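call fold(seq) -> tokens
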Amino acid sequence: MKRVVIGLSGGVDSSVAAYLLKEQGYEVIALFMRNWHDDSVIIDHECPWVEDSTDAMLVAEKLGIPFQVIDFSVEYKERIVDYMFAEYKAGRTPNPDVLCNREIKFDLFLKAALKLKADYVATGHYCQREELEVDGKTIYSLKAGADNNKDQSYFLCQLTQEQLSKALFPIGHLQKPEVRKIATELDLVTADKKDSQGLCFIGKVRLPDFLQQQLKPKAGKIVEVADNALVYDKLPNGDATIQELAKPLHYTISDGKVVGEHSGAHYFTIGQRKGLSVGGTPEPLFVIDTDVEENIIYTGQGSNHKGLKRKGLFVKKDEIHWLRPDMVISEGESKEFEVRIRYRQPLQKATLYNESNGLYVIFDEPQTAITPGQFVAWYKNNDLIGSGVINE
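ret:
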């Protein structure tokens, strides 16, 4: 009998995943990962680990599977939280969920499972794994979940072939209502539990409160840049190179007018609308750029403002990750893929150019709020092929 160690989070998805594994004849062991201790920044205690741990234990008891808690809080702080602080300080916006899967669930957790002589690890992610044979070798494919509204393949875009070879996603072929129905029929305590929101393993937080643990408030100017500002004369035209199309537009204070104050440029991200506290404009203000060195936020009116739209982005060479090694683009080559730059974004048509310094992603249509620090992921026929950190 094959042994599977499942990460039981205290939510409905992993609960049903554990049940399905048991039904399929696996020997199932459940581990609850405790990764966060500081409740001071959590809003309304929406993700208290004690409640989640108790729910996970009750589910394991109901299903008749062994259960224990494992503590990764020290490693989580080092690998995820410290990285987040460093990225925000540098004016970038990290994606902790992607990092959490790469560094915690499919690294530390996987190693802990292997010590328990596990053949596989499993999670409640909405995605699907397939085995392919390419040139006589087994290749593991990560496909989107069957539920388009819940597909979580983007969050797993940094996994490796080795990690995928040990991973099972038991609910990836199901729709969310089907998962809840199974949990209800089993009378699981998690059946009607809300989906967790916010930072991976931390919960819903007030981000400024969270960041203020290390990044102190610092008053600065909010500058509004008009949609017809002279700076937009610099936008690349139809003859532009891929390098020009991928380069972001940066501003100086002379490009607009001061319309308010903020408490720290590192608390804001491109595309953000809330938290600016500037009224009186015909359309809402959106952040179009942040300058952490000068501590200035640049904004523009409306979601169609020129400053929010870009045709391309760039990924440094050492931050390109190919999940499918059989589909790597050689240096100097280009290929069309479907691409997303954030979770739940509909896939966008784009061409990837692999150059000597890195990867250029040029979209067929301009994209809104391309954000340095986030991950870009590329797909072929709902099959996740690769990903990288957006450098600019």
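The two ends are 49 Å apart (CA to CA).
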